[in-house]
Amino acid sequence: MNTNVQRPKEIKVRKFVLKPIPATKHYAKQIFDIFHEDADAFNFWMEYGLYKNIDEVLTEYKNKNKDRGFCKYAMYGIFYGDELLGEIGLGCIYVRRQTAEVGYWLKKSARHRGIIDLLLPKIEKLGFETYGLHKLTIWCDNENIAVKKQAKKHGYTREGLLREEKIWPDGSPHSTVLFGKLKSEWVAQNKK
Ligand SMILES: CC(C)(COP(=O)(O)OP(=O)(O)OC[C@H]1O[C@@H](n2cnc3c(N)ncnc32)[C@H](O)[C@@H]1OP(=O)(O)O)[C@@H](O)C(=O)NCCC(=O)NCCS
User: Fold this and answer.
1) Residues 6+ apart with CB under 8 A from 129
2) Is 2 domain-assigned?
3) Phi, psi at 121, each rounded to 5°
């Protein structure tokens, strides 16, 4: 792994710009509203429940851009002009293991337009080429059909099901699916 790599400040993909979401009240409010207007979809993602208030979002975004020793962070806001459409990136890069978890979300009005299909390969390039990682993973709720379809479509291997490993705030048990892609697989897929 390239341990000294500086995360790119901005990645342009056609009309979209990927850049860190500023930790300001303005964006915290947008994120709060986006998640609450579509609670059913975001419940799949928020194990501990949706944000309770805007300050909670603000605190999270102030802290999450800081690298921790074992875990670097490379998440990007997805911007179309000034509009924040969602977020995508490497939620945790495990330096010693040379692996990272891919994470993403889109606001409701930005879905079904193939935006993740367009951006996911760029994030894979960031992980495998820029950071020199060995493996990327996608973890999702077993009921999250969109992500399961996308992982399969983008050539990830379903590695396992963690049965009822999460308890949601309403008390219901939920299972998590793990998908993985090795660098060797990514190289082979990109030769085609
Ligand atoms: C995950 C997410 C970004 C996907 O949005 P998207 O990239 O626009 O993807 P789509 O909604 O087009 O769904 C992808 C595919 O799954 C299909 N799909 C989605 N929901 C489905 C459902 N309930 N039943 C059947 N198929 C479904 C879509 O038709 C599409 O199929 P296609 O590729 O053949 O056209 C969005 O749902 C989201 O933000 N969810 C909340 C956060 C989240 O779960 N993040 C992932 C954490 S790992």
Assistant:
1) none
2) no
3) -60, -30
- Residues 33-71: tens digit of each pLDDT: 999 999 988 887 788 889 999 999 999 999 877 767 678
User: Considering the entire predicted model, what is its pTM?
Assistant: 0.95
Q: Please give the structure tokens belonging to residue 28.
A: 């915290």
Token digits for 72?
Answer: 């670097």
Confidence bin at 18 (pLDDT 50/70/90): very high
Residue 5 maps to a domain: no
Pocket test for ligand 1, best of 51, 75, 116, 141 (most atoms within 8 A of CB): 116
162 lines ligand 1 (CB under 6 A): no
Mutate to test the pocket of ligand 1, among 149, 156, 177 (most ligand atoms within 8 A of CB): 149
Cα–Cα dist 42/183, whole Å: 30
Considering the domain boundaries, does residue 113 fall inside one? yes
Q: Ligand 1 in contact with 45 (CB < 6 A)?
A: yes
Nearest-angstrom CA–CA distance, 162 and 139: 10
Helix axes 115-125, 145-153, angle to 10 degrees: 60
- Ligand 1: does its nearest atom lie under 6 Å from the Cβ of 44? yes
Please report, for the domain that includes residue 175, its CATH number.
3.40.630.30
The rounded mean pLDDT for the chain is 93
For the segment 153-159, the average pLDDT, to the nearest whole number, is: 98
